[in-house]
């Protein structure tokens, strides 16, 4: 009878061993699959300041101002430096939306592209087309051309005109040009054109 108890007790131990071994195998498999057998705990100290987690989430850039390209061609670059890759070349008077400024560079948005341009070549208004004043040696110097708003700005006075060539051009090409020749001798702004 004592032998049977030992045999029965040994069988119980074997069962217990296999049950525990099975649990250990299942736990190991759980760890391999992605689980953990380490409980997750946390402690909050109400007296301490709340922990700040810094997340570097780029803010979407703001484009607050409308500006215009004042150069004949302006490189739109990937980064704010002259060594950065050129995304495109913006033509004169291209309208851009300006945002962040950094060391002489401006982040701009235009036609669905965002990039950096030099602050030196942006203006608050479109640049007027250059007025071409023909030199005396050019053919057609004294011929009247069709005046337009770009070549004939509002009435000029001799005090505002920089050269005799410019005064002659206004005389020949603008509807108000005769006002520059006060004595009608064909020489405009006689103070400049002697």
Question: Layout of helices and strands, plus pairs?
Answer:
Blueprint: H1 2-33, E1 65-69, E2 73-77, E3 86-91, E4 95-102, E5 105-110, E6 113-118, E7 122-123, H2 164-173
Antiparallel strand pairs: 1-4, 1-7, 2-3, 4-5, 5-6
| Poorly predicted residue ranges | 144-149
General form: rod-shaped
**How many domain modules?**
3
Q: What value does the Rg take, in angstroms?
A: 42 Å
Describe this structure in words.
This protein has helices at residues 2-33, 164-173; strands spanning 65-69, 73-77, 86-91, 95-102, 105-110, 113-118, 122-123. The protein is α+β, with helices and mostly antiparallel strands. The protein has 3 domains: 1-32; 65-123, SH3 Domains (SH3 type barrels, Roll), CATH 2.30.30.40; 130-194, no CATH class. The strands form 2 sheets. The chain has a 5-stranded antiparallel β-sheet, with no helix packed on it. The chain is rod-shaped, with a radius of gyration of 42 Å. The termini are far apart. 13% of the residues are buried. The model is unreliable at 144-149 (pLDDT under 50).
